[in-house]
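Sequence of Cohesin subunit SA-2-like (Neomonachus schauinslandi).
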Amino acid sequence: MLVAAVRQAAEGRPPAGRRLGKKAAREVDGTRRWREHANMSRHFVKVLPRLLSKFAADKEKVTPLLQIPQYCNLDVYDMDGLGSYLDAALLELDCLVQRHSDVAVLEACARAYGTYCDEGGSAHCQAAPACSRLVDMLVDVLTPLLDVFIQREKQGLFLGHGEMGRICSTLRRLAAFYSAHDLSSWNLYEKMDSLLTFRRHQGSLPTEVSPTWHLAPPRASADTVLPMRGLAFAFSESPVPEEEARQRFPNLSFLLVLSEFSCKIPPAKRQAA
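Predicted 3D structure, token representation.
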């Protein structure tokens, strides 16, 4: 209800089921509406960090709260000297991303960062570096884990559940940001492509997936090859005999990450894959 009220106030609409008379409509137009929106924004940019901190552990409550920045006039950070509250909000966002692995929370965090990082907004100068540092941290976590994963695979060993869980959760976080931000400078395609290429040559594929792999044209682009290699990786069977393996298809969780990345691929290339 809180977020719905904020949205309603930001858009200047009356409560559901009510209509403003002509006189009232004229009164809330123009300068007055702008002033009320600014006052609301000042209030919520101050209380938002505390709200995010208070409900950080509750994904059902914190997810809608992350929508509040998009309904605020973020220029109040500069106009009213509220930069410290922006720093606090960005810190809470960082903590939420590192704390949660739920897709809805991560996507809401990514969209909130996107609102703050808007190039035309006053929050951009503080938010963009903070977002870049967070992605840097995630990539720095992922890179050595992938290196260890490939080395263990070459030796015929398996990663523990903890390490594999860290890989999957880090990929899930990066996928959420990939859907809302331009992460091309981090070369994530290259990192994932090297992993998928290795797994393709090491593991066997079910017959349902094998034909899909060979549909790639001789000079397929990374946009086309990645979905096919992603499917191959996700459905690659464990090399351990089935009766001894903990799970026949240990990489199925990668389908979640692949679905996030694939939505950015042009439809024509998706069909080719």
